[in-house]
Amino acid sequence: MYKVFLVDDEPFIVEGLYSILDWSDYQLEIIGSAENGKEALASLQEHPADILITDITMPEMTGLELIREARALFPDLKIIILSGYNEFNYVKEGMKYGIENYLLKPINVEELKQTLKSTVDKIQSTQAQTMAHQDMDILRSNILNRWVSGQIEHDELLERGQLLSLEIPHECYETAVIKPMIPPSPQHDDLIVYRNEKLEQVYQRVRSMTEHDELAPGICFVDWDSDIVVVFGYGSSEDQDTVEAAFSQLMDQLRIIYPFELLVSMGELQSGLDGAAESYRDAKRVQQFFLISPHHLILTNKRVEELKNQSGSSIHVPDWGEYSRLLLSLQQEELLQRIENDLDQLSSTEGITPYQVQNRVVEMIIWFKQAIKEANLPDPEEAEGYKSIFAGVFSSLTMGELKKQVMLAAENVMAYLQGQQSLSPVVKQVLTQIHEHYADELSLKLLGQEYNINAVYLGQLFHRETGKSLSDYVNSYRIEKAKELLKRSNLKVQEVARMTGYLDNSYFFRQFKKYVGVSPAEFKGLV
Hints:
DNA-binding; alpha/beta; phosphoprotein
């Protein structure tokens, strides 16, 4: 089913369109409606449609303004205009944006049906052509990625470039890399699908603009890091200023169209076919400096050198004592505000480098983990979920992303401490015993004897406060330790079983597969 969006400031017109025909007969479904162009544009960005049916005269944003903005975002959108006025100027203006038809109110149902039928036929024809081009697009992307990563011979590059109608041979090259910072959307459950859709929109827009720009023609594609790459080829270095100025204007236009940040870096101008790869490496390398550079600038090596040569000043040091006080007193809002203030002060430090920023952020995250130990609290696996946070730190290109990672670490520790406060002393002792002696025999009977408490009551208390039975908690903890040993050592599976408290190998195998999903041997093979 193809998706239709309706726009009219007269509610009875929208209601009439819903009921005027059986839309499913034409492989169509109405996914939404709006009373003005501004509201419609916002809805379309969240829920793209195949066909837009819109009035011309509306408050907030006219139909023609809506068509212009929607066409910029969705080049393949099919548009049908409704109007109560038989104005040739409207028709002429609409034709500039490629409308399917201009229907007068009251609507002629037969004309509407015929228009919808022909529009659906056109969509299907376009999709068939798109599918025919997909294999060529895959080949194109592969060739261009191999080019900028230095993995293709010159003869093959030129031969494939001719096949793909790409103007590759030039005297010198300059490469731009665009990273769209697409935020999650609360309206979309699948974040990956949503981001891929938005990336495709930006890519198609950039490709259309650069490949048809007389002043800055470039070869556009998406690299293996999901960044948009534009390779500019010059007959001589004298063309560089003209192309850079035109590309800068293009980026200004894109930043108006899209509501999220576009981080843009450019490599040095390089000569020869291998120059594209050298320039591409430059552009990717300088991306890390967005941590300390304004995001609206096109970041270049020259700008990076300016940042490096700024007179340095002392790097701000957080008040760790105040952090401890706020953390242990569970004042989360105040702690997060202090973290944000400290990071803002850090990022504005003159002469600071991305490496120093990352080091200080890592220091802050490690400090949160250390706070658990200093409070004499057990350090379970659940409180150690730092691997993904550290990975996020080193892949972050903006202070906003870094802040999210630090805030996440602080919130995780705060939540853990809040949970610990609700634990009874005996359960805290049992958890400490498990974490320190997980390889020893552990049972409710033995632990009950050690802490002078009825075993049945201890089991009920442990389950109520941790949400797990004692055996389930012990097994899950042991299996996590077994995974670490399998990853970091050359020990045999049987040795790992014994070291993590399993004397029966078959029982260890069953528990490992239960918690991990594969056998220990298969897991070891994967890592």
